[in-house]
Amino acid sequence: MKRRVVVTGVGAVNPLGHDEESVWSALLRGESGVAEMTIFDASSFPTKIAAEVKQWDIGKVGEDPEIWKARGRHSRFAGGAAKQAVTASGLLDSGLDPVRFGVYLGAGEGTQDFKTFSRMMVAGFKGGEFGLGAFAKAGLELLDPIVEMEQEPNMPAGYLAGMFDAQGPNANCLTACAASSQAIGEATEMIRRGEADAMLSGGAHSMIHPLGVTGFNLLTALSTRNDEPTRASRPFDRLRDGFVLGEGAAMVVLEELERAKARGAHIFGEILGYGSTADAYRITDIHPEGRGAIACMKMALQDASLQPTDIDYINAHGTSTAVNDRVETRACKEVFGEDCPPISSTKSMMGHLIAAAGATELIVCLLAMRDNVLPATINYENRDPQCDLDYIPNEAREAQCNTVLTNSFGFGGQNISLVLGQFQG
């Protein structure tokens, strides 16, 4: 029989707040974290807005900022969220064998050194032609090796292992917007199989830099509603024009149930089901009939031994792009039928945290079950005939919430669904 897995610690740093309770309070008030970009000068870009983490420093969680100053922005977010989660769990005071404690993240790449890269490109172009030798020579002279090392997506997982003496399994997956949900699913499987007794899992990412924004602008995926930042992210609304980039980190401590009970740990909820599929379709487009999303949700429900009617709330991937919202709606209707439960997208408030999005939304689901309150989809003003479900428009709703499903669908066709439940002894 599979070992049961519960959540005993949570932590978050994102545009709406610097811990899970401040984030939750902002969500319930329907606040937006979107504003004009300040991390770099985006005045010449089609998109000039983003959801940034502001007025936060890793010293707020008791870490020495000097140690972290050369580490990536996303690594600092990861450290902050992880410190909150591990502290809340009480895990380090429980006598856990460090070899039975691992880390599995869905963290993104580090911030790109755009200025240095630009100087290298200038050095490489002579007489209208590009010379690789001159480009490489400039790189050897200009690039900071520490900054370049921080590009590696595995770096946050390594830092967290060192922070908490987690000597067990250590891994990172970067499956785009599905990454941190996949990491939590895979970490759950490791505990179920007996490969670890506890795992620190989640994700961290910041793509609010010139190369990140350029890439998504070229894909025409970002909103250009620059004059109304707080109204730009509008999932399922007929006038949506793209998502808003966010940043941050979210971490959870996953623990084998019997061990958590034996030490009297506070249990936030239980991981009941995990589904993972691929569209096998295109690099940037999801399958128009939502076949991967449909299969993924069904797989998660089957893994949880639940029926669609058992789900009280769906936290949508809900990016605010024309295609995603339509296809996700279609997929939910296929899985849940005419009795589809209420569904909302909290990306309407905090933007799209890319690799960190799934773990952030999982924490939102845990808090929704705790308080029996469903967060809203703000900026829902214009009904789209192709998006005709109950999206909990504009105001949070009190409702009994025992079991939830959360979706994360990534570029490249990765699909992850997780089913969570209130802990039932």
Characterization of the model:
This protein has 425 residues and is α/β, with parallel strands linked by helices. The protein has two domains: 5-111 and 152-421, Peroxisomal Thiolase, Chain A, domain 1; 114-149, no CATH class. It is 34% helix and 19% strand. The protein has 14 helices and 16 strands. It has helices at residues 20-29, 65-68, 73-89, 114-124, 132-142, 145-149, 155-164, 179-193, 210-218, 257-262, 291-303, 322-336, 347-350, 357-371, and strands spanning 5-13, 35-36, 49-50, 101-105, 125-126, 129-130, 170-172, 198-206, 247-256, 269-278, 313-315, 343-344, 373-374, 397-398, 403-410, 414-421. Strands 7-4-8-9-1-10-16-15-11-12 form a ten-stranded mixed β-sheet, with helices on both faces. It has a two-stranded antiparallel sheet with strand order 2-3. Strands 5-6 form a two-stranded antiparallel ribbon. The protein is globular and about 70 Å long. The two termini are 17 Å apart. The mean pLDDT is 96.
Mean pLDDT: 96
The number of distinct helices, counting runs of at least 4 residues, comes to 14
Structural class comes to alpha/beta
Query: What kind of sheet is the major sheet?
Result: 10 strands, mixed
**Shape, principal axes of CA atoms:** globular
Estimated share of beta-strand residues:
15-25%
CATH class of the largest domain: Alpha Beta
The whole-angstrom Rg is 21 Å
What's the total number of strands? 16
For this entry, what is the oligomeric state of its chains? single chain
Catalogue the unreliable spans.
none
Helix content: 25-40%
CATH-derived architecture of the largest domain = 3-Layer(aba) Sandwich
CATH overall fold name of the largest domain: Peroxisomal Thiolase, Chain A, domain 1
Relevant CATH superfamily of the largest domain: Thiolase/Chalcone synthase
State the domain count. 2
- Spatial strand arrangement across the major sheet: 7-4-8-9-1-10-16-15-11-12
Order of helices and strands: EHEEHHEHEEHHHEHEHEHEHEHEHHEEEE
Straight-line distance between termini = 17 Å
